[in-house]
């Protein structure tokens, strides 16, 4: 059988790097879209750089996306690129809309014009549920986004469905709940905590400053979630799926568990809060119902909350030790 070809936008990000590894393990030829930066940011993919082909492009630039689709001639396209940090979406709402909303249309246009038979995955988000209308949240739960990022993702979600219905593209939207890993950006709360705890443990810091400790999230492991993306594109029919663990925890519980991983029990003395990290509108409570993914894709998470926290703290302790050598 001919080797399958996949194009990943956002390959330098957390999910892009895990997905590229996963597709290489399935013998795909992997192409990744990267935007120009003044210094290279290939930290997450440097171990596989010689096995993938990077193509220049930006979600703001239609021609570059069209060229990337043309050059890679993919069987599957994973649109993971986005301005993905919710907090930044209030300070840069227009840019977030350009990247995270209209960027999806630009990618879909490239597919429609150049490679309409390619299967397309859109990285939708549980942030679309925002102020939740029911719990747990499933594919049929109404959206009520609470950030410019969430609003942009709702647009991306519906334009994907619209291109599927208008042009008969195999275009699917994965509504993924929060997923984390040692490769998570340092600005997201889980990695901020694991990195902060590791520093405290090693005597390199004496506090972590956070925002809302009461927010609850359904946190899974990113490595598990990229497999679900791939499974969605292997189905006979294009459909949307929720991907989640079905369990949620508060930010406070994450903190407690992270300190526990390095045997620190009196964690409260190290944690402060600041208004600086409180959002204009908060998503208080997310918990996903992934029954459809479990039944149709035979997908299930393999890493528990405790294992995830321990994995992230250990990785940060190891990283900080290595960097201080
Ligand atoms: P991430 O680590 O922030 O990665 C985002 C990627 O998008 C990076 O490779 C980034 O490139 C790229 N990008 C940003 N703007 C771009 C532009 N204008 N043109 C081209 N590339 C651009 O995000 P992630 O956690 O891997 O998430 C992947 C996708 O899933 C995102 O769409 C996110 O919104 C969505 N999602 C994530 C989660 C989660 O919990 N992780 C849950 C639901 C949905 P640079 O390296 O150059 O910045
Ligand atoms: N980042 C951050 N920093 N968040 C904090 C902090 C802090 O110091 N203190 C408390 N929080 C709370 C936030 O208010 C939010 O309720 C929760 O921790 C999680 O924040 P993030 O880790 O930034 O993630 P997110 O849930 O807003 O967004 C992530 O998940 C979405 C899926 O639901 C991102 O990966 C999005 O791209 C993704 O779509």
Could you please describe the fold and organization of this structure?
This protein has 325 residues and is of the alpha/beta class. The protein has two domains: 5-179 and 220-243, Rossmann fold (3-Layer(aba) Sandwich); 185-217 and 248-283 and 303-323, UDP-galactose 4-epimerase, domain 1 (Alpha-Beta Complex), CATH 3.90.25.10. Helices cover 41% and strands 15% of the residues. The protein contains ten helices and 13 strands. The strands form four sheets. The protein has a seven-stranded parallel beta sheet with strand order 3-2-1-4-5-6-11, sandwiched between helices. Strands 7-10 form a two-stranded parallel sheet. It is globular, with a radius of gyration of 19 Å. The model has no long low-confidence stretch (mean pLDDT 98). The chain binds NADP nicotinamide-adenine-dinucleotide phosphate and guanosine-5'-diphosphate-alpha-D-mannose (GDD).
Give the structure's gist in a few sentences:
This protein has 10 helices and 13 strands.
Output the keywords:
325 residues; alpha/beta; Rossmann fold; UDP-galactose 4-epimerase, domain 1; 2 domains; seven-stranded parallel beta sheet; 10 helices; 41% helix; binds NADP nicotinamide-adenine-dinucleotide phosphate; binds guanosine-5'-diphosphate-alpha-D-mannose
